[in-house]
Write a structure and sequence with these properties.
heterodimer, A: 6-stranded parallel beta sheet, B: alpha+beta, 4 helices, TPP_enzyme_TPP-bd (chain A), magnesium (chain A), FAD (chain A), flavin adenine dinucleotide binding (chain A), EC 2.2.1.6 (chain A)
Chain lengths: 581, 161
């Protein structure tokens, strides 16, 4: 017997293999089409209606599938993968409960414009509409939270639909697209003819190139402005426009604030960067917006957490709004100069035209002074651990270079405030929907996208319990995520609102009965560490960083810490509670 | 200021497309006064005509949000141009033999027609713009309307556009 020559696995050869026209099942068509779209890994969970699909995976080594422990874990992982990589995230779930378990994740991705292709099984076409076992109208259920959706009725349409889905998810304003595949379609045999590259969608032509006339108006407005301000959002990162943004700021020297989803779009060490705006933003950002005479929104959507009370938002400013989604312009804030287009394209067209905002010197001085006088601050302690101190420690020990994912609540805001991001796609958080349970699975996805980078998942002790089952994935696949728990034994953000707005009427916020997180980690075969003071914290964190695999670090922190500054709901953003630090 | 608008929407004739459009109106809080759907001049495309009320900003949002639906090809605000808007109503009205000549008088004046005669009632068909049909209904009310069915408005811009 001659020695076996290992198969050469060049991408070209693989593609040729995947594209081979053969009579195969809908399931095999699905897997091959996904590979042809460049999908590196898929997160999923099997079940009755996707048995043919999972059967097609059996022994198909080209296809990389990660079995999560809950469908919600699968979709958040796909989301984290997409946000960290810029590619389309993919997840698979079965019909009925499998599909409905994805709903929160789909809405999360939709609100934050994350490109996902979500594949669900459904009962056979002959059973649809009969209330069959595990039947749910998932295309109907998800219509308001998907960019588009398909119910595949004919296996011959599958290659085209998959190709369209990837195109729709990843272009224009990105978002989740759902493909629902009935069981008989995934079983049906047909001749596989890969979809051509061309996409024929008459009703879908995202506008990339802006109207030149509006650009000229902006160039003039910058020249005239005395108090110009940039408000940059997630659109900068999603369009790959961070370098163009840097150039824009370098040329115009206009101060810049970045929204929660825009963190990392601009280096936080830059002297013109004022931090985050809005409900828990910096004093400088909010005051600057309120005083500005020209507010240039670049790829943000004037979310209510940023604007506060709309009537009274940026009252003196001429509003410029650059966005790829025309529906965002004028939706919340009346706009003087609307610029519809891809952020990167717009900025690259603007950059040769714009000059230094020459009338804004006094303004720049004032911004610097505010930054100095009003940084984020907290009262540190040597007796109890302060959550802000922990985030500062994470930042200092990693030079702001880690990928940080978070859950939702106080720890999320502290991470946003105290971790200093310098690169795009390093900050992964559920901003629009505010989804608890997002922190851990999204970190798994981010780590899959960047095996070489350090990924830190910052969680509260509440949200940690919403998807903690995914620790199993870290253990079994040796995904070296460092899971940080800011453990204050309460639902902190709810407690903060109840203290400040509901007269200390603390209702159902006590998380007594939570597991011992060290033991929980160990139960999954993951290293668990705990720290209750600074010395232990430094030691535990150093050990976590030195450990090659996944680690859970339970930081037990003070219970009654609030996130400041804070703008309460219904106030304009210059009415800030600054706390007593 | 809130005013009435008639919007035509050209959509892919796909399963679920009506749900996509009506769902959008529902979840964003836009009003639908009437909605009609049918074939258009092009195979594979349907034309919807929706009558809605709202101010300028709402109308702008409706158009933009509709365009975000992949199956929406074109949105036309008909109300900004001279348009022909028509709906059809079937009205079953009480009509004892003695009252019939009087009712027939109303029907003729409105250029409506009687499409069915029962022993105690008539079915009247009327075509026209919304105000005409409203007026017709008002005039038939005293006789006792047993059943009323309106199609909702369909509309088109006049002339060569």
């Amino acid at each position: 017997m001659s020695a076996q020559i290992p198969e050469v696995r060049s991408t070209e050869q693989l593609r040729e293999k995947w594209m081979k026209p053969e009579v195969i099942t809908g399931s095999e068509i699905l897997l091959r089409s996904l590979l042809l779209e460049g999908v590196e890994c898929v997160f999923g969970y099997p079940g009755g209606a996707v048995l043919y699909i999972y059967d097609a995976m059996y022994g198909f080594e080209d296809f990389n599938h990660v079995l999560t422990r809950h469908e919600q874990g699968a979709i958040h992982a796909a989301d984290g993968y997409a946000r960290a990589s810029g590619k389309v995230g993919v997840c698979i779930a079965t019909s009925g409960p499998g599909a409905t378990n994805l709903v929160t994740g789909i809405a999360t991705a939709y609100m934050d414009s994350v490109p996902l292709v979500v594949i669900t099984g459904n009962v056979a076409t002959t059973l649809i509409g009969t209330d069959a076992f595990q039947e749910a109208d998932i295309t109907g259920i998800t219509m308001p939270i998907t960019k588009h959706s398909y119910l595949v009725r004919d296996v011959k349409e599958l290659p085209r639909i998959i190709h369209e889905a990837f195109h729709i998810a990843s272009t224009g304003r990105k978002g989740p697209v759902l493909i629902d595949i009935p069981k008989d379609v995934s079983a049906a045999l047909t001749l596989f003819e890969p979809s051509s590259d061309a996409v024929n969608l008459r009703g879908y032509n995202p506008r990339m190139v802006p109207n030149k006339l509006q650009l000229d108006k902006l160039v003039q407005a910058i020249e005239d402005a005395e108090r110009p301000m940039i408000l940059a959002g997630g659109g900068v990162i999603y369009s790959g426009g961070h370098e163009a943004l840097y150039e824009f700021v370098k040329r115009t020297e206009i101060p810049i604030t970045t929204t929660l989803l825009g963190l990392g779009a601009f280096p936080s060490g830059h002297e013109l960067w004022t931090g985050m705006p809005g409900m828990h933003g910096t004093y400088t950002s909010n005051m600057a917006i309120q005083k500005s005479d020209l507010l240039i929104n670049i790829g943000a959507r004037f979310d209510d957490r940023v604007t506060g009370k709309l009537n009274g938002f940026a009252p003196h400013a001429k509003i410029v709004h650059i966005d790829i989604d025309p529906a965002e312009i004028g939706k919340n804030v009346p706009t003087d100069i609307p610029i519809v287009g891809d952020v990167k394209t717009v900025l690259e067209m603007l950059n040769p035209e714009v000059k230094r905002a020459a009338k804004a010197d006094a303004w720049r001085t004032w911004i610097q002074q505010m930054k100095m006088e009003q940084p984020y601050r907290y009262q540190d302690s040597d007796s109890v651990l302060k959550p802000q101190w922990i985030i500062e420690m994470l930042n200092d020990t990693t030079n702001g270079e880690a990928i940080v994912t978070t859950d939702v609540g106080q720890h999320q805001m502290w991470a946003a405030q105290y971790y200093k991001f310098n690169q795009p796609r390093s900050w992964i958080t559920s901003g629009g929907l505010g989804t608890m349970g997002f922190g851990l699975p999204s970190a798994i996805g981010a780590q899959m996208a960047h095996p070489e980078r350090l990924v830190i998942s910052v969680n509260g002790d509440g949200g940690m319990q919403m998807c903690s089952q995914e620790l199993a994935i870290c253990a079994i696949n040796n995904i070296p995520v460092k899971v940080v728990i800011i453990n204050n034994q309460v639902l902190g953000m709810v407690r903060q609102w109840q203290e400040l707005i509901y007269d200390n009427r603390y209702s159902h916020i006590d998380l007594a009965g939570s597991p011992d997180f060290v033991k929980l980690a160990e139960a999954y075969g993951v290293k668990g560490l705990r720290a209750t003071n600074k010395e232990e914290a430094r030691k535990a964190w150093a050990e976590a960083l030195e450990t090659p695999g996944p680690v859970v670090v339970d930081f037990v922190v003070s219970k009654d810490e609030n996130v400041y500054p804070m703008v309460t709901q219904g106030s304009t953003i210059d009415q800030m509670l600054l706390g007593d630090a | 200021m809130s005013t009435r608008h008639t919007i035509a929407i050209l959509v892919n004739d796909q399963p679920g497309v009506l749900q996509r459009v009506s769902g959008l109106f529902g979840r964003r809080g836009y009003n639908i006064e009437s909605i009609t759907v049918g074939q258009s001049e092009e195979a594979g495309l349907s034309r919807m005509v929706i009558v809605t009320t709202g101010d300028e900003q709402t109308l702008e949002q409706i158009e933009k949000q509709l365009y975000k639906l992949i199956d929406v090809i074109k949105v036309i605000n008909l109300s900004v141009s001279p348009m022909v808007a028509r709906e059809l109503a079937l009205i079953k009205v009480n009509a004892e033999p003695a009252e019939r000549p009087e009712i027939m008088g109303v029907v003729e004046t409105f250029r409506a027609s009687v499409v069915d005669i029962g022993s105690h009632n008539l079915m009247v068909q009327v075509v026209g713009d919304t105000t005409k049909i409203d007026a017709m209904i008002e005039l038939l009310k005293p006789y006792g309307i047993r059943e009323l069915s309106r199609t909702g408005v369909t509309a088109m811009i006049r002339g060569n556009v």
